[in-house]
Structure formats: structure tokens, C-alpha cells
Amino acid sequence: xxxxxxxxxxxxxxxxxxxxxxxxxxxxxxxxxxxxxxxxxxxxxxxxxxxxxxxxxxxxxxxxxxxxxxxxxxxxxxxxxxxxxxxxxxxxxxxxxxxxxxxxxxxxxxxxxxxxxxxxxxxxxxxxxxxxxxxxxxxxxxxxxxxxxxxxxxxxxxxxxxxxxxxxxxxxxxxxxxxxxxxxxxxxxxxxxxxxxxxxxxxxxxxxxxxxxxxxxxxxxxxxxxxxxxxxxxxxxxxxxxxxxxxxxxxxxxxxxxxxxxxxxxxxxxxxxxxxxxxxxxxxxxxxxxxxxxxxxxxxxx
Length: 302
Known about the structure:
The chain is mostly beta strands and 302 residues long. The chain has two domains: 28-152, TolB, N-terminal domain (Rossmann fold, 3-Layer(aba) Sandwich), CATH 3.40.50; 161-300, TolB, C-terminal domain (Neuraminidase, 6 Propeller), CATH 2.120.10. It is built from three helices and 21 strands. Strands 3, 4, 5, 6, 7 and 8 form a six-stranded mixed β-sheet that branches. Helix 1 (45-60) crosses helix 3. Residues 1-13 have low confidence and may be disordered.
């Protein structure tokens, strides 16, 4: 048996059986956030904030957010341990209870969150978070990450972004979105074929291939901060499957100019640094792996 929750808060009754085919999810009750704004503005955030956080925790695989229709407690405005009627939450089977309220301050919103173990009536987390009102989803992702870290010791993934190829316009374009599929943003609009987006280690740049110039696949680099796009490799033949090095200063990709498709490393200006394979077969999809010592920046081929 492996203890899930931090022993420092005495929550040893929640376990994962490592011999079981799957873990038992922790039942968490998340009532609608209370609006503490003096003029009562932005009442819609009461449920919107709750819905985003519930979805995050559900998708993590650790938690099972409970149906609000099952809630019995009448302590809607209570946030502190002394005010909460834990028996009402225990009787419906909740393991954890998250109580929260928000205050709108201009274009910002401050959220106060308190997480309790229902069985012991102990507070696990108590913290205030400040973010932009119109970017409340990101604020909830931050709170979700804090909950995951507090309970498991591992960093959450809720602020991660995905890069993908979409064809909603009738052309294959590159898009990015939040990990839950929201906030979709178009990266290319070339009305052509864009493929194989690859995040930089710092998450602020993308390498991708495009056929927009009408020839073979050209390798481009998109700087998301500045919005600028530049050509990295436009050699005759293939320029595909670029993989970032761990330090973000070079990439490995397949080039076929002059002879067989082989793996090369290039810098971010397209200069060939080294030929890594020289074989009659087709060498594609290089991937860097992190090692320590002299083996740093070794790569693997598929």
C-alpha cells in the first residue's frame, strides 16, 4: 500500500493499492465559489470557476468530483474550519472538501481557496491566488496545480499547452490550446499543409514543417512571444521531423539533400552542425534523451 496524501497533515487513511489495476479516485466536493465582491459583480464566475477546477481535477485521474445535487450542507458561506459542518460532507461520502470564494478587483479577481480532509476536519491547503478576470481559466489551472502538488508532491500539468494540426479551415494548419482543449489559437494560416509541430524546451517557440512555398517540406521556426516566423531549413528534398535538443540551441532532423535521408543536427539558423547517420536505409524521427555526464544529448531513432 502506498500513501497518497502528505503524512505531515495526518491524512493516512487514503491509500492506493499498488497491486490493483487502477487507483481508487479521491472523492472531492467542490461547492460553487462564493462571490465576496461588494457590488456582487461577475456572479457567473461562481459556477465558471468551479467548473474549470472540477474538470481539471477529474482529468488528472486522482479525483472524482462529486455531483452538486448530493450536497447536504447548509454552510454555503463558510470557509473556515470552525464554520464548516464536516458531518454533512462525510455522510455523502466526500473524502476532501474544497471551499473557495472570490473578489473582483477592477480587471483582476482574487480567489481564496481552502482544502479540507473531511474525515479529520483538518485544513490541507489555504491560499489566495490573484489573476486576470478575463483569464480565469488560467487562474483555475494554477490552483489545480497547487492542489496536485500539495497532495502528491508532483507538479500538475494544468498549465501545459498542446500543439496540433487541425483541418477546420479545409487546410492543415498548426494550432495551440490549453491542456483541456480550450483557448485554441491559430499559429499558421497559410492555406496549405503544415505538419509536425514541436515545442521548444522553454515553451515559447515551435518548429514545424510547411508546404506553403509549393515545394518540399520546409522547416520553420515560430516565436510565439514576438509572432515572427522564419525559415530554418529549406534544402532540396526532406527537412522533416525536427527534435529540439534539451538546451534549445539546436535541433536534429531528417535531411535528404544530395543522397539518402539521414539525421543531422543544425543550429536555429539552419547551419548543419553534424551528420549523425550515414546508412542506405531511411532514418527519421530523431528524439533527444536526457542523460548525465558525458552521455548528455544522445538521441534515439525510430
